[in-house]
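Weekly modeling sync, notes
Attendees: S.R. (lead), two postdocs, one rotation student

Agenda item 3: backlog of single-chain predictions. S.R. asked that every request posted to the team notebook include the full sequence so nobody has to chase files. The rotation student volunteered to paste the first one in as an example of the format we agreed on. Action items at the bottom.

Example entry:
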Amino acid sequence: MAPIKFYHNFLSGPSRGVLLTIRSLNLDVEIKTLDLLKQAQLAPEFVKINPQHTVPTIDDNGFVLWESRAIVSYLVSAKAPGSSLYPTDVKKRALVDARLYLDQSLQLAMSSAVYVIFTGEATKIPVDKKQKIFQILEHFNTFLEGQKYAAGDELTVADLALLGTISTLYELGANVSKYKNIDVWYKRLESIPGHQENLEGAQALAQYIITKPNFSWDD
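Predicted structure, as returned to the notebook:
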C-alpha cells in the first residue's frame, strides 16, 4: 500500500502535532512540504484536494482529511487500533478529546495574539490577548497536577498536539516555565520521537515572528 501523503509545513504548530503522531506511530508517509509564506497552499492542485487549503492535510490512499485533531485521532484509530495514544476506553478517550479541545483554544488564542504582529498593527502582543493565553495555560497547569501527561499517566495524542502549540510559546520567550507542572511535562516530552523536528519548527516560527520590526513579547 502506498504511503500516506502528508501535506505539511513545519511553521504550523498543528501540522507539527500531526508529525509528532506520525513519528510516534512510525508510519510510512510521503511528506509534501507547502511553503505557506509563498502561498503554495493556494495552488489549484492543492485547493482541489482541500478546498479550505489548510495544513496539515493527509491523503491516505484516496481518503483526504484535514483539521489536525481529526487527523491524529484517525491515524491512531486506523493505523494502530488499541494504542494508548488514543485509548479505546470511552472515558479515557473523552479526556483525551477534552485536552485536544483545550489545545484548539490555546492555538486560537495564540493565532489571535500574533496576528497583529504579522499585519504590522502592533509590535507588542496586546495585554488582553496575552492574558487569554496565560489563562488557558493556567488551566492546563492545574489539569497536570498529580499526573504525568495531559490526560493521565500515559502519553496520548493530546500531549503531541499541545506540544506542537506550547513549544512555540517557549521559543517566543513567553514565561511558560512559571507554570511548574507544564515545565515538568514539557521536559518529559523531550525524549519522544519527533521532538527535535518539532523544536526546530517552533524555533523557525518564533524567529520569523521575533524578526518583525520592534517585536516584543514583554511579559
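Discussion: group reviewed the output briefly. The first helix runs from residue 13 to 25.
Action items: rotation student to repeat for the remaining queue; S.R. to check formatting next week.
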